[in-house]
Amino acid sequence: MIQSTGQMPDAIIFDLDNTLxxxxxxxxAACRAVIEYLGIGDAEELFRYxxxxxxxxxxxxxxxxxxxxxxxFTPEMASYLTNLFDEIKLAHINPYPGxxxxxxxxxxxxxxxxxxxxxxxxxxxxxxxxxxxSDFFRILVTxxxxxxxxPDHYPFLYAINxxxxxxxxxxxxxxSIRREITPGIELGYTTVYARYGxxxxxxxxxxxxxxxxxxxxxxxxxxxxx
Length: 226
What we know:
This protein is α/β, with parallel strands linked by helices. The chain is 43% helix and 11% strand. It folds into two domains: 11-22 and 94-221, Rossmann fold (3-Layer(aba) Sandwich), CATH 3.40.50.1000; 24-91. The chain has helices at 24-38, 43-49, 61-70, 75-91, 99-108, 121-130, 143-146, 154-163, 177-186, 218-221, and strands spanning 11-14, 112-116, 139-141, 170-174, 190-194, 210-212.
């Protein structure tokens, strides 16, 4: 049973994708839509293209490279498939069970909240609006806003500065050990590993303060009744 810490944080920084909302499953669905349209190729193979270091995880050039390697590239095809991919991906992004109710409870306690994500602002805003999260977060930090990507400390410090809150008791909730938990520990934050969203299975032995297997498990840690 998860026990209360007995102390409310001054602020909570949340990751977005795979922490507040589904994302990897949405990318898989978008890959399947591309392959279904093409009538050739393999959805898992296309998804693996996004894991290459050549471009960022959301860069449409992965799709362009894939259809080039299939021998079906045209500029028109690349443009259409990029738009199709983005449309299907967004349609499959949803808040995890309990997120809306949990954020309402946290918001009502007067705890400041921010999102720090590696998604570009335009993409992040679409997802936040799609999932009904806009009312809870007045602070959104993305690489095009802060100029840095996680696990660099600066995006987190930027968020705290924007929140204009005391930095003595900050909680950081995220699904990535490397990009959220490790820098959170280095910054002295209370770290909450959203294990339910970590699809990479690359846990490296770093010890977060807490680990949760569903979003509602965060509430008792904060002393909030679910």
